[in-house]
Amino acid sequence: MAAAVLAAGCALVRKSSAVKDAGRPLVYPNSMKLDQVDDYHGTKVADPYRWLEDPDSAETRAWVESQNKVTFGYLEQIPGRERIKDRLTQLWDYEKYGVPRKDGGRYFFSKNDGLQNQSVIYTMDA
Predict the structure, then answer these.
(1) In which domain, by residue range, is 52 found?
(2) Do 31 and 71 fall into the same domain?
(3) Nearest-CA neighbor of 77 among 23, 13, 27, 29?
């Protein structure tokens, strides 16, 4: 069922892309590149985007904001987007349990009430 929903969503995006701006490409902001190079036992590895690893830096926050402006500007123009979102919310709103695992005399399992961003890990005596 998820594949059918995804296919329908992709078809809608493809159709809306043809209507929107007649194929004009999105223009993303430039991303700063630094001369960061690490040496791992004689092997040099370039890491020009290391600065993005600090989620609290002003530079990273500005970069995320500029990228989101382009992305959400596009997504908000997709016809039927709210309808798709509402339908996906309905489809995904059910309890999900992970496979229990026994370790050290205890069982561990995950549970998601339906619309939680992440599952919660629970434990109980074996």
Answers:
(1) 27-77
(2) yes
(3) 13
| Residue-wise pLDDT tens digits, 75-126 | 999 999 999 999 999 999 999 999 999 999 999 999 999 999 999 999 999 9
Q: Please count the helices (runs of H) and the strands (runs of E) in the chain.
A: 3, 6
Is 66 found in the same domain as 35?
Answer: yes
Structure tokens at 80: 């039927």
Amino acid letter at 23?
Answer: G
Position 19, amino acid: V
Q: What rounded mean pLDDT belongs to the chain?
A: 88
CA nearest 123: which of 94, 105, 113, 112?
105
- Tokens 């798709």 sit on residue: 84
